[in-house]
Fold each of these.
Amino acid sequence: MALLTWYWGLDGILVLLSLIFSAYLYMTRNFKYWEKQGVFELQPTAFVGNFKDCLLFRRSAGEFLKDLYDKGKGLKYLGFYVFDKPALLIRDPVIIKNVLIKDFNYFSDRFVAASDTDTLGTANLFSIKNPHWRILRNKLTPVFSSGKLKKMFYLMAAVAEDLDTHLETLNLHGKGRVIELKETCAKYTTDVVGSCAYGLQVNSLNNPEAEFRKFGRKVFTFNYRRALELSTFFFVPGIVKPLGFKFFEQSCSDFLRKALWGAIDDRMKSGDCRNDLIDTLIELKKAQAESDEKDPDAFIFDGDNLVAQAAVFFTAGFETSSTAMSFSMYELALQPNLQRRLRDEISSALDESGGKLSYDMVMNLPYLDMVVKETLRKYPPLPFLDRVAMVDYKVPGTDFVIEKGTPTYIPMFGLHYDPEYFPEPFKYDPERFNEENKQNRASCIYMPFGDGPHNCIGLRFGLLQAKLGLVKILSKYEVTPCERTLIPMRLDPKALILSSDGGLYLNVRKI
């Protein structure tokens, strides 16, 4: 006789069924949370909640949240579940403005989190928590002032010349040839970030085996494992440590440590001053070491805490701008009349300047600005924002309280494609961003760089390098669709940063 019945096999089946039933009860214990709060909730499925399509990589994270946004049409917010965790999606621009700006102190941290043993993941400006975030943000903001960028422009212009040289070597005369433009743009932006932030000649454009490009490519290679890791950081950070996930893959972390400390050592030995990120990090390290104030809870400007800043600026700096550049050329290739209009504007500006590029010229081309803004509407690199309620927060004008610890998501991808705000949202139309339309648009509807105190610190830098690259390419080359061009565009369901599925191929021909 077995323990429960006459047969061991039957005992095993009963135990297994009991375990499954217990797991079911545990994983559904929070379901109806939103209903009890008086909030519309999407019907969840046991064990996965509403997260199934994202978990199985049927939809990218941005598309997943956009789908939720579309299902909540007419609502100010709605509840959903990531596995068993209740999460809130905000649709209403007024409430979004409260969360991001007006009542920022209630939502001053992102929900994204790394393991406390992963210093590069926890200490970087993107994911670090308060009060260290506020200190770090204030210290690093001056690096990206317009004055500093004007001083950096000659470094960017030198890389733009390298881009021009690289394209010349590809023999694009006559009918031209097919190029995977995302990779070309990523090489250019990698070299810009390497020069402007690290003070290094990275040389990705001329050397296919350049280490910075090799490891940059590795960070954003969205295989299933890497996609699972990054999704976990943003949606279920509680399981990051048990699973051993890292914000940066180990070999990338080792390379970035080596590159940063090599750059710092060289700079300190030479005494050169470039007014860049490396100089700022050195100054912060020295100032803290010389200070008489020794706060045990202070953010330490040394070791991996410094590497984390350089790492996140490198990875975010090259990837987001190369995404904006390549998607801009994709859309312009599909609408030659828009491409011609932009080229005419660029050519006129170059004629007036005698062919010389300058910061003011690049940043004051109105149609180029409209083109880039429309690209960022259709393809915001990070297509959602995440916040977490620091304390209980009563939504103004309602009885609804967002409880402390609730993950709160703002789907820019959904807002950017809402026909209420952007008629014919799938149409690429730079005129949406002419002066009249910009003035008539409410706040917190268009947010490719986020909004409020937590917005992207490097947005000016990113826009400048993207615009400069577009000026350099489109002044001399025409881009057109080819057999490998995705029409319509299909996004990679594994990519957290918006990316085309299988590359972005266009025919490039020298004019």
Amino acid sequence: MTSNATTTAGLSDVTSSDAALRRFLHGLPGVDQVGAEARAAGLATRSIKTTAKAHAIDLAVRMVDLTTLEGQDTHGKVRALAAKALRPDPTDASCPRTAAVCVYPDMVTTAREVLGADSGVAVAAVATAFPSGRASMAVKLADTRDAVAAGADEIDMVIDRGAFLSGRYLQVHDEIAAVREACRRPDGTEAHLKVIFETGELQTYDNVRRVSWLAMLAGAHFIKTSTGKVQPAATLPVTLVMLEAVRDWRRATGQMVGVKPAGGIRTTKDALKYLVVVNEVAGTDWLDPAWFRFGASTLLNDLLLQRHKLRTGRYSGPDYVTLD
């Protein structure tokens, strides 16, 4: 599925021109579609022993970017979501907090008011004309700067899929690099940048691999599958290809980049399948919220129900968790 001998030769020069970047990206090992899907399917059958399941569920809770990205979002809904991120299960103080709350930029201040500065729960904001990415660079950069100024710890940007699919790779690279620069704060710190590919529109696994490397070359801290607005969203084979890319990037550069599947991951069973794939493909270093996240709005509720079942030995009704 991928070569373990990803070369570092010329990495510093591949973004010198469109032609050089194209040669590099099209020179990456091709993805064996049948092999990738078969391996993902095989890993999905792995079972997790009961003794490890409780740890895996808590880890999955800690990896959730609890998300609301609807036109009907209100400040009250965002406050409630942020409170849930801080105390997912009010009946159990041992339940860990989620990784982040992900909202539109105009809701960053509201989320920050609830989460505070040192709760350990980050505020993530979608930016750059989410979910379409169809805006001028001036608008995309202003969107990003506004979110960072409002207190966002993380920015989830969307790439211009039309530019990528047209082969305008250097344009996409330069836009990602410019957004990364816009994530910098006056004090020299920066918000972490997650780059969304909208893999459901990229057509092939080869394109997923290419865009993963493109984003990492441009300075992405995380690579992310989807906005959740296009189907298919996250899938195990696509995530496997992205995990191979970050693994090979680390081998080539010594740098770790995170991965975030988003959209369609709704059950504990699904989440545990992803954790198995992370462990088997990228390795245990990625089994940490600093390097792997779930973009989800409903996953947390099922994790809480399964967690309660392990703790008490009985299933609770759906009214045990809040409706988000």
Amino acid sequence: MFDERDLGRGLMAVANRGMAAKAAAGLVVLGLAGLLMLAPFGGANTSQAACAPGVPGQPGLPFQPGQLRETQIGFAKLIDQVAVQRGLPGRATLIALMTALVESNLQNLTYGDLDSVGLFQQRPDAGWGTAKAITDDPPVYAINAFFGGKEAPDPPGLVDINGWPAMALGDVAQKVQVSAFPDRYATREGEARQIAAAAGIDLDRRGNPYAGRDGLPPGASVGDGTPDEETCGTSGGLESGQPVNGVWPEQAQSVTDPTGTGGLLTPRTAAWVEEAKKNLGALSMSCWDAHVWNPTSDHPRGKACDVMVGADSRRSAAARARGDEIANWAVKTAGTTGVHYVIWYGKIWSARRGTWIPYNGGGVYVPTDATGGHFDHVHVSMW
């Protein structure tokens, strides 16, 4: 499992796998020395915010060119290959990539905390198998062990977790890893998606989330966890549909924003606000905004509204269900209200396309952030 010794692993990550063992041990010592320097400030109990920037588990890491990234892409392809062979959805691959990035920087390490080794830092003493099996090259055994199922070792893997498709990605990783630092997995989602894109991996691939397991959990179906059937708690998931055709002439901003911002909306946007209130009940909504950090936004043009759901929906089933309800209503009524596009829960829907696709932040927002990825509000833009 990930601990402060990963300061040492972060240094080792840049070394070629063929480097001499003596040099590798030296770098580990340097990592441990760094750990001892941190001891006066909390040691192993230090919070994530106090960790040195750039070590595994930190958010916002940039794309890493060179041999390290090529190695990571190679292991990502292998992880996805195993997932595809098992019939697992792309979401399973994403969680495995996030986990391996935190645990080993997505490398097949022969060392780690206590007896932890391999891509996922699995421990022989915890029942994951022998160190030789876990670090086999290629590490197919370790990948299958992470995914779990009837042929895997005793510790429960991904497919052994009831309802995992409805859980936040980082929470699923923690269910498998049982780490002392459970919040670190979610911080690597952006980098995992970046690597998956470079590897040509389809993270929206359909599949059976319990493939390889003896039977399905009560109430589960093979479709659980696929993009258009994704659920969370009582949420019904996101609905797509067909492209919405229509002619929507340009309108000037002429109506005082009914959400109280003091700005002006187009008549079409103001009408949408009133319809949303009639059909969706009480809403916490804000439309016009100067958006000085993003002048191309529809907000200062009076053509967009943000509807808050009250929490980060990755951690709240109620917030996810409410956001799904709002987003689905906006999509279903787009043909009569003039909705241009909707952004919600890390995805974007447009009238011209008629389907949901992953949202990458548009070069302005951090897609893994609660607000930047639109996990705490639904954005609706009008024509």
